[in-house]
Structures are given as C-alpha cells and as structure tokens.
Amino acid sequence: MRRSHIESLASPLRAVGLALVVSTAGCAAAPPLAPAPRIEVGAPAASAPSQPVALLELVRRFEAGDSRGRGCGLGARGDLLAFCGDGGFVLWDLARDGAVAGVGANDTIMFEAAFSDDDARVAVASLVGVDVWELASRERRTQSDEAGTTGAFVAYDGGVVALHNISLGLVWLYRAQGGAAYARIEAGGRYDADRFQHPPAFAMAGGRIALPLRGAVQIFDTTASPLSEVPTEGVAPAVALAPGGKRLAVAGAAAIDLYDDGGARITRLAEPDATALAFSPDGARLFAGTQTGTLAMWDLARGERLARIAAHPQRIGRLRAGGRRVLTMTDDASAVWRF
After folding, report:
1. pLDDT tens string 105-115
2. What per-residue string of b and e applies to 215-226 under the rule 16 or more CB within 10 Å gives b?
3. Beta-sheet strand order (sheet of 325-329)
4. 11 and 22 in contact (C-beta within 8 Å)?
5. Is the pLDDT of residue 1 over 60?
6. Segments forming the whole domain that contains residue 269
7. Do 329 and 204 share a structural domain?
C-alpha cells in the first residue's frame, strides 16, 4: 500500500529523503563550468556588429546527492521547479530562490515531473505510474497503478497527462482530474537496453503526441488515434512539439529538421548530435541539448543560432522551457537558465 504524506519543511530535502546540493553562479561549490558562460553566436560577429548578443544565463544548478534521483519539471511560467528523487519531490520557487514545500508521494523512485498550463497541478512519474497533485492543497488527484517501469517520461497538455512507460513500450493517457488510464498507445515495444542506452523521450502539445520510433516519428492525438508520421533514419534521439502542436522538431545526427503539421519540412538547423529539444513558450525559439553537454538556442524566424554554451560536462537528456527560463537535465545534475 502506498503512503501519502505532506510536511511543512524547515528542511524540505530531509523530509523526502533527497540530498540536494545547490550552487549559484559565483559560489565556490559550483562545478568547474564558467558561472557566466561565454557564448558562440550563430553568425560571425563582424557580419552583424549592431545586433545584440543573446545570452543564456545560469540561474541555479541542482545536483542529486541520491543517485536514484532522476529529473525535474519546470512550470509553465518558469517560476516553479519540481525536483524528483527517492520517495517524493521538492517544489522550488525560482522567483523567490528557495524551496517552498516537500511532498512525500510514495515509497518509490520519482523520475520526472510536468506542470499544467496554469501551474496549478503537477504530474509526477514514478516506478508505479503517475500521480497528479493539486499544488494549492497538496492533494493527490490521480493515482495510477499501471504496470511497473524502470523509467518513465511524463507530459501534461490541457486536461490530459501522458506517461511513457519505457519498460513496456507503452504511452498511457489519463484525465488530469482523476481516474484510471482511458487509452494507451503502442510505443514501439519494450525498451531494449542493448539498443538504447538512453531511450528517446516523447513530446505532447496542442492535443498531439509525437513518438520517436524506428524509422519514423509517429503523431497521435490524445484519443490514441494515429494522425501522421515523419520518416527518419533509425530512431530520432529527440523530438519536440511547438505550443499548439503545429510544428515538430526532430533531431538527427547532423541537424535538426522542423516540420509543419502536414509533415512537410520547413527548415533545417545545423545543430549536430542533439539529444534533447524544447520550444520556447511562444514558439519563437528552439533549444537543443547535445551529447557533449552544450545548450544551443535558435531563432526560428531567422534560422539563426543565437547562443551556444557549455551547460554540462555530459549528455543533456531532457529539456523543459517555461516563461523566460529553460531547464536542462543530465544523469547527474539539472540546471536552470534565463534567456
């Protein structure tokens, strides 16, 4: 039986059994990355000397002291962060720069979190399924008990929560207000650790779900009905849907391709080895994390890379964008950047 408890926290990290080390730019405890990173602009500076240089500024870096901590979620407005760990998650107020509450969700590992569009709820994926929490009351609205998983991705779009069960190769769909899964999508079969050291994450926006499968990215609606597909070589390492679901970004070995909702390619961005993608909330920019830990920001109207920084010393596995912030996640750490 699962245990649910919520505590007011003098030390929220201790309450959820999660060791968290926080460092800010300029602190001695920061990793050996430049706290005020220099950027590489998409075009030579001499060609456009009067244009302002776009910066990606480090806000905070989080390192998991418990190796079983998996990931985070960033609120739609970019002010709230849900830091997942062993047995619960911590809500962090980035605007006020401090932890506001710790939620002991159950006795298992929490993998990833996703916020509703109004930041009123957060969905958290764990070993035993997905929970949806009301943040004002700290009450759990949905508590699933689908088949166990060794890893999961979660997305929140409108009134629908999607859980990608990596172990079983299934995407479960839930109504955020409560209840069991109402539909599921076959997501390419069981996760094969020999083929994928890092399974590709799905994306959901505008009532559409993009799944990177072998040979294509398949698009479904939130009734689990197939809509279209975009051919790929092998399995795309990362995908993203723009707000509203009208544009799709697909990472490849040498570049990122953008497609319209009819599957026609709009443009190609020369960003190799991308392993994570996210659109800005207004859809004007695309963020790309890479195999080597760099974070790039593209202006989609101009097809120009605005910035590229050394965000982490290792592969970036997930990105989330909210407000004027973007969240980068690796196996060992997460960081929040202002753009």
Report:
1. 566 778 889 99
2. ebbbbbbbebee
3. 20-23, 57-64, 333-338, 325-329, 318-322
4. no
5. no
6. 35-61+192-339
7. yes
